[in-house]
Amino acid sequence: MKKLLFLFLFSASISSIIAQDYFPNNSELKQESHNYTAFTNATIYVTPTEVIKKGTLLIQDGKVVATGKSVTIPKNSIIIDLKEKYIYPSFIDSYSNFGIELPEKAERSRSQQYETKRDGYYWNDHIMPENKAINKFEYKSKDAKALREAGFGVVNSHIMDGIARGTGVLVALNDDGNNSERVINDTSGQYFSFKKSRASRQAYPSSFMGSVALLKQMNYDANWYAKGLSKTKDLSLEALIANKNLTSFIDAGDKYKDISADKISDLFNLNYIIVGGGNEYEAIKSIKESQAKYIIPINFPEAYDVSDPYAVNYLTIEEMRDWNQAPNNPKVLSENGIVFALTTHDLKKPSEFKSKLNRAFKYGFDKTKALESLTTIPAEMLGQSDKIGSLKKGSYANFLITSGELFEEETTLYENWVQGNKNVINPLNTKDIRGTYTITVSGKTYKIVLSGELDKIKSEVKVDTLKYPSKFTYKDNWITLSFTNEETKEVYNSTAIIKKDSNIISGKLLLPNGEETTFTAIKKNDYEKEEEDKSEDKNNPEAIEIVPITYPNVGYGFTEIPKQETILFKNATVWTNEEEGILTQTDVLVKNGKIEKIGKNISAGKATIIDATGKHLTSGIIDEHSHIALSSVNESGQNSSAEVSMADALNPEDINLYYNLAGGVTTIQLLHGSANPIGGRSAIIKPRWSSDANGLLYKGAPKFIKFALGENVKQSNWQSFNRFPQTRMGVEQLYINYFTRAQEYEALKKSGKPFRYDQEMEVLVEILNGERFITCHSYVQSEINMLMKVAERFGFRINTFTHILEGYKVADKMKAHGVGASTFSDWWAYKYEVNDAIPYNATIMNNVGITVAINSDDAEMSRRLNQEAAKSVKYGGMSEEDAWKMVTLNPAKLLHLDNKVGSIKVGKDADLVLWSDNPLSIYAKAEKTLIEGAVYFDIEKDKQQQAAVKAERNKLINLMRNEKGDNSKKKKPTKKKRKVYTCESE
Amino acid sequence: MVKNKTIKALRKNKIMKLLKNISNLLILCIGIASIAQQTPAPIQSETITIIGATAHLGNGAVIENSVIVFENGKITAIGEENKTSVKEQGQVINAKGKHIYPGFIAPNTTLGLVEIEAVRPTRDQDELGDMIPNVRSLIAYNAESKVVESMRPNGVLIGQITPRGGTISGTSSIVQFDAWNWEDAAVKVDDGIHLHWPESYSQGKWWLGESAAYKPNEKYQERIEEIKSFILNSKSYGKETPKTKNEAYQAMQGLFNGKKRMYVYTNGEKEIIDAVTILKDLGINNITIIGAYEAYKISSFLKNNNISVLIKRVHTTPESDDDDYDLPYKLAKLLTDDGVLVALQTSGQMEAMNTRNLPFYAGEVVAQGLDKEVALQLITLNAAKILGIDSEYGTLEVGKSATLFISEGDALDMRTNILTHAFIDGRDVSLETHQTELWKRYSKKYSEK
Questions:
Q1: A810 touches chain B (CB under 8 A)
Q2: Has residue A939 been placed in a domain?
Q3: pLDDT in tens, B308-344
Q4: Which of the ends of chain A has fewer CB neighbours closer than 10 A, N or C?
Q5: Which residues contact A944 (CB under 8 A, 6 or more apart)?
Q6: What is the pLDDT of residues A230-266, one digit of tens each?
Q7: Whether A975 contacts chain B with CB within 8 A
């Protein structure tokens, strides 16, 4: 109790020094000081572009009173002469969690948690706009010190947890004040991210596209709630609505997610400020087009230890380029006119900030832009330009005093003033005592050289040429020097005070025998910087070799985006997929991305001629069911996820896109996984390796959604017993329930009465109206039959059954319903429901008259679908032409794209593949793959690419090897785990 | 499809609700009860002569227009029609325009140990314990598996049935695919021991929140020491008649006298060099590397040490994004070109059912430029040599087992791999399966409408 009381009194006495003026003070007499402090003769950066030479900065009561060349200095001023020194506004970190602990991690439970555990808040635990950082904020002096040492005076903090995170708090790093003074703004904006809260285990959203959908629905719901339409109270939505006019920040953390964030921002007019990932330079075009403002981390990767040649095998070009290119990010952003602030976010500690920023400077990042990105820009983002970020009159007296230009490497940061309070980083008036001295002790003359950086002086003690081990300190105007006589092992200790205007140091010397005497050291020469430092030319960006970016910026990326060409294939065996069948010795002319002409002896004109004698030309392969080029596949947090879209999860850097091109694939449906009876919306793409996410998308493609039946949606093959449905009986009822609700939703919407916009219901209504097609994952005959009956009851048709391994058992019913089939050639026996799967399935269904496709659902198989189609020739004796259509024309029909792709016909897209052999043969290789007349794969060019990859690997490894630093401390190579997705992936 | 993760998750969840278990079991029993297997063919009683086919001998040679005679399960004569004294005897099969191959051999497969991957009661490939060489696959081999019978219509007639998991998974045996029971099926009992070499890089424990990336395995040397110690102990154990029996050490004895082969699963360059150097040092000379993804970088080392390779499944994607897109396709060719003894194997995702695609893996290597007859050896003679059954199987030669099949066309290409006959030890085996029966039943249903 005593201790507690003492603590209480102690803290009370501290705060009394700066307590608000209306607070009574019982511990001492209440006194105030309103003296001025004037900093004279300094080079003052009022803003990054407004510089006053030999100017004066006058401050009082924590604020700037005046800056200028001729400032009248009041008499009650403390005058600090800063001749040859510089003053800058201190930095602002606009994205931080300073002083705010993360909430505790929710405990794992045995079964998934699907519903919220809160009452009176939003239905999803990861939406917490009601959170207030100020309520959890606890000032941390130690962290503040580290930030001040890195040059920061103000940080903007928030609870860095959840998808909607509530409001933030803007704090000055003022150790002497209390929160009533430090907190500049206690609702400094709203914060969002795509990442779930650690405090809740609610399963939804389990995927990136789920997070996108949830953020959207939250905004729809807020608009609806604001109109007073909700019958129940929702404190989350109320907070969101109340904070509507605050600046919104969203942590995207990656170039592609930046764009996803920007899309949401545009949809709801939110003007999100986007926290990037540091890789924006790889997608600078779309970043620029976003017209958003950014906060950019500078956590550039460290070099890897490349000393072990085996370990180096685990590194990819992608990772090595990241090390080589990432420091270029700030420069690229600024050259493209993107407004951004820099942050310490993602750094292990603030002390890394300086060295990372220096790296950016070595890559040519403009120093004025750097200062802006740390002062005026974040101040403006935070709406506090009048208070922080500059040294204009009325601003807080937050500034740095330095020995020279701020971002020069040898510049020393002396002081970081926050709200008028001085914080010494390095003593300002430290005398430069570096140089060469001589001392004579007991008849021996010692030469002492003091060198190194001013705040870290090193000593060297020599007698003639013999070096003696020595130790030296220089602090608070006192030095200590000790050295050991190597011959006698005798130790000498000395200490002395440094006098301002003298070249002589004299003080006390403790002799080895214990006697004390005095010594005098006389400076012979001033310190001169070593030559080697100058020769290195550290600031010359040309000294750094940056390997070029490719599209995408990984191994096998293209240096240029393929362009449409005019090409004439001569003398090919042409698989038309049309009535003409297979034409021999035929020419095909490609122009403007389309098939221009098919025939014999077509004149070339200006076309590039490709001799296709002995080769086969086909339309490109279409994979109706794939999960490549995605960053996530299943939104398994709910049993219906119609609101999510695979287009939100595109990954244009997936090497499988290139592999697919090498396998002759030119159109792909990227499906949601099979976790839910009602899955997510499909993305139909063309594998345009080199384009961004948007460029992959098949423009104007019909709308699709994935449904799923059977063991996966029942969650039969793992321990899960608490999600509806658990049986095939339940699956039917779930569909009936959802479609009935969708009908009611549409009726309400059409009635003109107010309604809650529901993304999920909107999609289901599209299905009911035949505007969106279903591809349904299915295995056994009972469920296939069931879904057709459900669809018929609601007046629509199922478009495609995918997998459909027991389709052969109900082929007649499928034919009657009018549904197509997209199946595997020969997969079976991997789970109970595929026990009766047979490789003759495709042939039987084809014979019955169903439109049958062979799909992959597998990254590996997707690059050799021609072989999978050929298996139907073996199993059931399908004709070769029919077999080939199963991976071209038939999937085009199933996707309702057969008017554009799927066959070689004049006017159709020039999505073509030149094969070395009959495309159904195991011996066939794709030699050229064209998408809309542009060559995306060329087997000869690939050989050059293979060689280029090896050469660049070698170059990057050598660059890393030459990187300074202790190898043993460098990062060991790691190998990325490539994500391979199937239906069942998370 | 079922990915490994699901299966692992199943394994981890050992506490299953009893009720659930029983009901699963019931469903399964009912399911299995309805299965009718093909009856194994009787012993060859009559001499058979096949005439007119193109015979691919499996040793690189081809005989156009051939005559092949076999009786009592053995090939008694083979030659070119009209140019040989070989006479037609017994039952004559005219195979003009068709092709004859030695039965394809599938090393390192779990056929007969796993029926349905996602259904735990049907999985018998992975026993508890880290070094259990005494665990034998043969006795768990289900000769009546529906998956096994589906091999035959593709020409895959022999397989090495191999346990999975742990460091030393157990002992494999070689079987033929038309038998009443495992004793009938056995071709070579307890042929090899399967060792999973540690990786110098291992994946982060993602389920504990670590990154899933591969990082240096701090325990690599430690794990090697454990293996060395186990092998040394086994070796010492075998030097005199032991007082107390140790079945695990006992099972290892064949490795030191050359009766068993050590199959080492590893892919990295460094690991392969480590494994070969250390195992040879311990007195094990019959070594085959399984996987061997980076073996092409050290082919002369393998050749000099007389190490054979069962290469990673041909139809896989490259291990590293910087690798050639077609590297897995051409690995077997690169090693063959360098003179290393290579055969193909099919382990990996959905391995049991996928084993029937073995011939097409060989075809894929042909597409990479390997000679067709050389590629054929990857699934016939080379496999037989590695498995130590080449005196009986792997080629069409006089004195060897009449384990062969007739195909309408090129059996390495799926369009023409259409079997009309298959013989195992001269027995005329059925080409019908659960799958062909369903095909016929439903084809009939629709054709009658």
A1: no
A2: no
A3: 999 999 999 999 999 999 999 999 999 999 999 999 9
A4: N
A5: none
A6: 999 999 999 999 999 999 999 999 999 999 999 999 9
A7: yes
Cβ pair A972:B414 closer than 8 A:
no
Average pLDDT, chain A: 92
Task: Give the CATH number for residue B444.
Answer: 2.30.40.10
Mutate to test the interface with A, among B8, B325, B441 (most CBs of A within 10 A): B325
A984: nearest CB among B2, B216, B294: B2
What is the number of structural domains in chain A? 3
Query: Among the three residues B393, B409, B437, which one is the final residue of a domain in this structure?
Result: B393
Q: Which of A932, A952, A974 is the last residue of a domain?
A: A932
Are A830 and B415 a contacting pair at CB < 8 A?
no
Number of domains in chain B: 2
Q: What DSSP letter does each residue of A378-411 carry, written as one string?
A: HHHHTT-TTTSSS--TTSB--EEEESSSTTSTT-
Same domain, B371 and B328: yes
Chain B residue with minimal CA distance to A809? B442
- Please tell me whether residues A819 and A706 are part of one structural domain: yes
- Pair B123, B141 in one domain: yes
Instruction: Please name the member of B118, B201, B413 whose beta carbon is closest to the beta carbon of A975.
Output: B201
Q: Which of A711, A859, A923 sits opposite B413 (nearest CB)?
A: A923
Measured CA to CA, the distance from residue B331 to residue B340 in angstroms comes to 11
Peptide bond before residue A754 is cis, with ω within 30 degrees of 0: no
- CATH value at residue A886: 3.20.20.140
| Confidence check on the interface: ipTM exceeds 0.90, yes or no | yes
Give the sign of the dihedral formed by CA A166, CA A167, CA A172, CA A178. negative
Min Cα separation B72/chain A (Å): 32
The reply to whether residue A717 touches residue B2, judged by beta carbons under 8 angstroms, is yes
What CATH number is given to the structural domain containing B236? 3.20.20.140
- Judge whether residue B34 has pLDDT over 60: no
Mutate to test the interface with B, among A874, A920, A929, A942 (most CBs of B within 10 A): A874
Q: How far apart are CA A419 and CA A80, in angstroms?
A: 17
For residues B7 and B3, give the distance between their C-alpha atoms in angstroms, rounded to a whole number. Answer: 7
CATH number at residue A917: 2.30.40.10
* A441, A478: one domain: yes
Non-local (6+) Cβ contacts of B160 within 8 A are: B105, B106, B107, B108, B109, B172, B173, B174, B191, B192, B387
The lowest-confidence range among A176-180, A737-741, A948-952 is A176-180
The residue segments making up the domain with residue A891 are 621-719+774-900
Say whether both B231 and B339 belong to one domain: yes
Contact A659 B442 (CB under 8 A): no
| Residue A921: closest C-alpha in chain B | B413
> Any CB–CB contact under 8 A between A984 and chain B?
yes
Is B4 domain-assigned?
no
Confidence of residue B93 (pLDDT cuts 50, 70, 90): very high
Same domain, B234 and B344: yes
* CA-based nearest distance A924→chain B, Å: 7
Cβ neighbour number for residue A231 with a 10 Å cutoff: 4
Q: Are B178 and B116 contained in the same domain?
A: yes
Q: Which residue in this structure is represented by tokens 């290139």?
A: A658
Instruction: Say which residues have a Cβ less than 8 Å from residue B257's Cβ, sequence separation at least 6.
Output: none
Whether B10 is in a domain gets the answer: no
Q: Which of A719, A827, A864 sits opposite B1 (nearest CB)?
A: A827
B437, closest residue in chain A (CA to CA): A838
Residue B5 lies in a domain: no
Give A7 or B133, the one with higher predicted confidence. B133
Rounded to an integer, what distance in angstroms lies between the CA atom of residue B285 and that of residue B332? 22
Q: Which of B1, B322, B413 sits opposite A316 (nearest CB)?
A: B322
